[in-house]
Amino acid sequence: MSNRIYVALDTPDLARAKAMATRVRHHVGGIKLGLEFFCAHGQSGVHAMAELGLPIFLDLKLHDIPNTVAKAVQALGALKPAILTVHASGGRAMLEDAKAAAPLGTKVIAVTMLTSLDATDLAATGVIGSAHDQVSRLTELACEAGVDGIVCSGAEVAAAKAIWPKGFFVVPGVRLPDGQIGDQKRVVTPRQAMDAGASILVVGRPITQAEDPDIAARAIGATL
Fold first, then answer.
1. Least CB-packed of 47, 127, 186, 200 within 10 Å?
2. What's the pTM value of the predicted model, to 2 decimals?
């Protein structure tokens, strides 16, 4: 993969998403579309974005009983996303069924722990231990279930790679050294994430809210 940056276009505005993707298309490796975009535009919106010729990362974080998730993945099959996310906490059977239902060529990636959470948030939901402990547990589960990889923060990716040397590791929440962290709590720089074992980086606001998104994308790519 020549460019390992996926730009996160978390907006319900299709025209804005297409304009941004067109602007940065030569300096990113793909487009991440999440719930906000998908709820506004559905599969037709994803098809419209795919016309730009960049791989699509469909970040829906599916989480339900195994049969429901499998049918949802089947319903998305015509989109043939490069990457599709489900929640690791859905359990082994859900992960296995999601992978089995995915189209050939789609990587099913399990979200371990959102980068907006920390150990205090885990404790509030009844999960014992640190963020590192939780990511490690869910990495083992995802590996055993046969999905393709996980989403984790740059703070945990080295440990996850040690558990799963052949896994595919998606790291969101990266920020340049002088950047604002926003609502993220566990962030690293792009270079740190890649050195720790990230396969791809998901970058949103540092590109999309930059004065010149194209220059921002190039600047982040130059650090890798």
1. 47
2. 0.92
